[in-house]
């Protein structure tokens, strides 16, 4: 159902970066269509705000100091809060978009997009629509780890256990240059940038299985 024209959209934002929060406050707080209820920096604080305040839209970062966006989405759904959450993040890979959809998000906007795109997403979600970048819906239930070779899966598990390249090379009997080669291929396939992101993805997929 569409909103009435006179009612302002009540919003809470959460991001670990104070500059992002300041930017959102400048844009949203200066727009008469919106009412910025609160701004917080952690997932736990956001969940407290969900219990304490009346608002419609939550704009959440994907990587927060205490949890990621998936955990926030899951917690809000488990609590039965009728909040419509939009993930606003620099992590624009298709796996993140799939996870936002899968775990109950209403919208997704990348921080590299013009800020007007986020405003459009907020308005769409507030009016009962979902707003996501194009993604092949047939891929929603595809595990991104399925594209990895057996060796790449072994290396990913080792990264999740905190192993260094030197330890991995000794364990698998390969050179450190070969380890780096495999890791580059792994990062490219998963569309991630570093071992921390690889480890987080491995743990999240293991936990959702």
Uncertain segments of ≥5 residues (pLDDT<50)?
Answer: none
Helix/strand order: EHEHEHEHEHHHHH
Choose one word for the global shape.
elongated
**Number of E strands:** 5
Strand content: 5-15%
| Strand line-up in the sheet with most strands | 2-1-3-4-5
Using the coordinates above, name the CATH class of the largest domain: Alpha Beta
Largest sheet: 5 strands, parallel
| Mean pLDDT over all positions | 86
Alpha-carbon Rg, integer: 19 Å
Task: Describe what this molecule looks like in 3D.
- α6 (150-160) packs across α8 (176-190) and α7 crosses α8.
- The two termini are 35 Å apart.
- Strands 2-1-3-4-5 form a five-stranded parallel sheet, sandwiched between helices.
- The protein has 209 residues and is α/β, with parallel strands linked by helices.
- The protein has helices at 18-29, 43-52, 69-79, 94-102, 115-126, 150-160, 165-172, 176-190, 195-208; strands spanning 9-14, 34-40, 57-60, 84-89, 107-110.
- 49% of the residues lie in helices and 13% in strands.
- It contains nine helices and five strands; from the N terminus they run βαβαβαβαβααααα.
- The model has no long low-confidence stretch (mean pLDDT 86).
- 30% of the residues are buried.
- The chain folds into two domains: 9-139, Rossmann fold (3-Layer(aba) Sandwich), CATH 3.40.50; 144-208, Arc Repressor Mutant, subunit A (Orthogonal Bundle).
């Amino acid at each position: 159902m569409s909103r009435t024209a006179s009612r302002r959209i009540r919003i809470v934002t959460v991001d670990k970066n104070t500059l992002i929060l300041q930017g959102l406050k400048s844009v949203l707080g200066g727009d008469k269509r919106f009412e910025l209820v609160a701004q917080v920096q952690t997932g736990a604080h956001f969940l407290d705000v969900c219990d304490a305040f009346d608002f419609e839209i939550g704009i959440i970062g994907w990587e927060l100091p205490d949890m990621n966006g998936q955990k926030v989405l899951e917690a809000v759904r488990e609590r039965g809060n009728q909040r419509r959450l939009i993930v606003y993040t620099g992590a624009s890979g298709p796996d993140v978009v799939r996870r936002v959809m899968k775990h109950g998000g209403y919208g997704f906007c990348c921080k590299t997009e013009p800020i007007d795109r986020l405003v459009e997403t907020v308005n769409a979600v507030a009016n009962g629509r979902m707003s996501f970048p194009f993604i092949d819906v047939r891929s929603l239930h595809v595990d991104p780890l399925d594209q990895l070779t057996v060796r790449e899966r072994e290396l990913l598990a080792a990264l999740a256990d905190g192993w260094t390249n030197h330890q991995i090379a000794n364990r698998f009997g390969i050179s450190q240059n070969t380890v780096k080669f495999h890791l580059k291929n792994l990062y490219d396939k998963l569309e991630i940038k570093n071992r921390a992101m690889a480890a987080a993805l491995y743990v999240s997929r293991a936990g959702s299985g």
